[in-house]
């Protein structure tokens, strides 16, 4: 018989967050779900005592600590943390302002770290738990127009890989989930920031990506409902993966990157292996 889990899921008002909430509740689990505002709207969608909805701005460190404590007081523990809250930024690397880039890092990286720091003491006390960080295919490979957003997800990848090693002796798992293009609200103006500054020299690259992002909105190949079920599977796994790339598009783009990386290594192998001191053994 499946043991009931207790979840804390950020960014739960829509998209991946909402679908993971639905899937966890359908499995009989208990969920603390966080939203930026209008918590009553989400709470009213479900007639169950297994859901506790609270407001959270992940960039507010003190508030993340208060939410983690509230979740513990409500359900007694946190078995799974899903760091889902974040935002997109579509821009050439040169086009975005300092403020635009910092805002994206505040939400996607520093906010994730705030929530993680708030939750981990409770997991360490129980010597069990699972941190699931929503990354992106853009955290596995550079993509035109998504370099800055992708850089926040590259940070999430590095954070998750290190945490997986640091937390393993404590009985706690860490997983980075890398979705490709999924049919959510991510490409809507309410979720995706586009820079006010547009440089004409990038019209054939980033400009084409802007057009593509508009055209593909609500037509992406990935199913958010199936992603949520995949999240439940790794939460139930005895040995969950450190990486879970989701979507055929993600696998293809990552394979292409690895092929290019391998070619670079082969082409520059003599230079790569020729930088040690002469007194280092071959």
Write up what this structure looks like.
By secondary structure, the chain is of the alpha/beta class. The protein has a single domain, classed as Rossmann fold (3-Layer(aba) Sandwich), CATH 3.40.50.720. It has nine helices and nine strands. The strands form two sheets. The chain has a seven-stranded parallel sheet with strand order 3-2-1-4-6-7-9, sandwiched between helices. Strands 5-8 form a two-stranded parallel ribbon. Strand 6, helix 5 and strand 7 form a beta-alpha-beta unit. Helix 4 packs parallel to helix 5. The mean pLDDT is 93.
List keywords for this structure.
282 residues, alpha/beta, Rossmann fold, seven-stranded parallel beta sheet, two-stranded parallel sheet, 9 strands, globular
Tell me the layout of helices and strands.
Elements: E1 6-9, H1 15-26, E2 30-35, H2 39-43, E3 51-55, H3 61-75, E4 80-83, E5 88-90, H4 98-126, E6 129-134, H5 147-167, E7 172-179, E8 192-194, H6 206-216, H7 224-236, E9 243-246, H8 248-267, H9 269-272
Parallel strand pairs: 1-2, 1-4, 2-3, 4-6, 5-8, 6-7, 7-9
Question: Superfamily at the CATH H level?
Answer: NAD(P)-binding Rossmann-like Domain
Distance between the terminal alpha carbons, to the nearest Å? 55 Å
Q: Give, in order, the helices and strands.
A: EHEHEHEEHEHEEHHEHH
Stated plainly, the CATH topology is called Rossmann fold
Q: What is the typical, i.e. mean, pLDDT?
A: 93
Low-confidence stretches: none
What coarse outline follows from CA principal-axis ratios? Answer: globular
Q: Beta-sheet strand percentage?
A: 15-25%
Name of the CATH architecture: 3-Layer(aba) Sandwich
Largest sheet: 7 strands, parallel
């Amino acid at each position: 018989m499946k043991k009931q889990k207790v979840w804390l899921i950020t960014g739960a008002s829509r998209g991946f967050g909402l679908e993971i909430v639905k899937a966890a509740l359908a499995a009989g689990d208990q969920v603390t779900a966080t939203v930026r505002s209008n918590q009553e709207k989400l709470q009213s969608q479900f007639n169950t005592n297994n859901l506790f909805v609270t407001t959270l701005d992940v960039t507010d460190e003190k508030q993340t600590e208060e939410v983690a404590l509230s979740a513990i007081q409500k359900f007694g523990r946190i078995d799974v943390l899903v760091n889902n809250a974040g935002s997109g930024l579509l821009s050439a690397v040169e086009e975005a302002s300092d403020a635009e880039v910092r805002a994206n890092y505040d939400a996607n990286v520093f906010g994730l770290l705030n929530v993680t720091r708030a939750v981990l003491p409770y997991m360490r006390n129980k010597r069990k738990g699972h941190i699931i960080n929503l990354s992106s295919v853009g955290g596995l490979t550079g993509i035109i127009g998504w370099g800055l957003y992708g850089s926040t997800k590259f940070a999430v990848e590095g954070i998750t890989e290190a945490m997986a090693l640091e937390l393993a002796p404590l009985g706690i798992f860490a997983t980075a989930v890398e979705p490709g293009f999924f049919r959510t609200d991510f490409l809507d103006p309410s979720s995706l920031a586009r820079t006010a500054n547009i440089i004409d020299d990038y019209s054939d690259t980033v400009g084409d990506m802007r057009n593509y992002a508009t055209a593909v909105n609500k037509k992406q190949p990935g199913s958010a409902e199936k992603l949520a079920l995949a999240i439940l599977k790794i939460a139930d796994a005895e040995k969950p993966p450190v990486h879970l790339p989701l979507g055929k598009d993600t696998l293809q783009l990552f394979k292409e990157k690895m092929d290019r990386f391998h070619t670079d290594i082969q082409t520059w192998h003599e230079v790569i292996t020729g930088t040690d001191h002469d007194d280092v053994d071959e």
